[in-house]
Amino acid sequence: MISNRLTRGIALGALAALALTACSGSKAEEAAPSSSAPTSVTVTDNSGEHTINLPLTSVVATDNRTFETLDSWGIKLSAAAVSLMPEGIGYTKDDSVADIGTHAEPNLEIIVAADPQLIVNGQRFAKQQDAIAALVPDATILNLDPREGEAFDSELKRQVTVLGEVFSKQTEAKKLVEDFDASIARVKAAYDSGAKVMGINVSGGEIGYVAPTNGRTIGPMFDIFGFTPSLAIEGSDDHQGDDISVEAIAQSNPDIIIVMDRDAAVAADEAGYQPAAQVIEGSEALKNVNAVKNSKVIYMPADTYTNEGIQTYTEFFNSLADLLEK
Q1: Nearest-CA neighbor of 283 among 257, 301, 264?
Q2: Is 93 buried (19+), middle (13-18) or exposed (0-12) by CB count in 10 A?
């Protein structure tokens, strides 16, 4: 017969083996990385906090500040304001992206047909948001337009940072922010605070004055870089450029002129289009202005009017730094 002592020994050994197996299994489970993807993401936009279910199966985009970002990240869109996109944006060549049209004549039923979980809305389509929300009440609508009273450069960084969270592109968003910050630092380092700066908008062959701070696109640069304006007119904030005489612009004698050619983005193929450079260089009133005489007139990228995202500003700021560093 097997002794009681031997029986107890076998039993204890079996228990120990079971304990080791359980322990090692538990540690293996703890060490193994989780393969489950997140099922939702919570972000905050201009209207508050949103929890978005993942994965995203249908995304619509109408904010032209975001098109280049979404395209570069390879985000699949069901529908978008393709008619507002510059030709360089990949969605313009993708027939699977339904075109909603422009903000002037949108076909919002296309958004309904896309059955979106998420709509990245804003800028020109901001006024359509209530109508869109009524048509697709179950969709999350994100509006990350730069907010009034907030620093414009910070708002551009907020926009791509939030989108990076939504689309799990945090690393890519961080790189966009770093490149943008670096371009700003270059301009600040190269700019002589004694140099007077003028922002102008050229459209239809006419030169318009862009107000510091308030004027669209160029105006915020005065705050970002601390530019000294060559001319400041109170209450001037027309985003298409204010009706100030070319003679008044010339009399202010700017040392640097920053130009946005509005028509280059929307009318370059139309008969009668006059490039901004042609208009400025052909202006008799401007020929003796310091900026013109010293080749300190700089033009924003041709697609700026329809592509006002962080990449456009980064590109332009680096070009401006190149000019100022000469």
Answers
A1: 257
A2: exposed
The tokens 């028509």 sit on which residue? Answer: 263
Categorize the per-residue pLDDT at 104 as very low, low, confident or very high, splitting at 50, 70 and 90: very high
* 315 burial type by CB count under 10 A (0-12 exposed, 13-18 middle, 19+ buried): middle
Q: Which two tokens stand for residue 185?
A: 């630092």
Residue 253 DSSP one-character state: -
DSSP structure class, residue 57 = S
Report d(CA 321, CA 113) in Å as an integer.
46
Which H helix or E strand runs over 150? none
DSSP string, 155-197: HHHHHHHHHHHHTT-HHHHHHHHHHHHHHHHHHHHH--TTSEE
For the stretch 190-199, what's the b/e string if a residue is b when 16 or more beta carbons lie within 10 angstroms of its beta carbon? ebeeebbbbb
Ramachandran angles phi, psi of 137, nearest 5°: -65, -20
Residue 160, C-beta contacts closer than 8 angstroms, at least 6 positions apart: 69, 173, 176, 177, 309, 310
Judge contact between 68 and 179, C-beta under 8 A: no
Q: What is the per-residue pLDDT for 241?
A: 44
Which amino acid is residue 135, in one-letter code? L
pLDDT digit string, tens, across residues 246-294: 999 999 999 999 999 999 998 888 888 999 999 998 999 999 999 999 9
Task: Report the pLDDT value the prediction gives residue 35, as an integer from 0 to 100.
Answer: 55
Least confident of 36-40, 100-104, 158-162, 220-224: 36-40
- On whether the CB atoms of residues 205 and 265 are closer than 8 A, the answer is no
Residue type, 258: I
Q: What is the pLDDT of residues 263-276, one digit of tens each?
A: 999 888 888 899 99
* Encoded tokens for 309: 């995202």
> Peptide bond preceding 55: is omega within 30 degrees of 0, i.e. cis?
yes
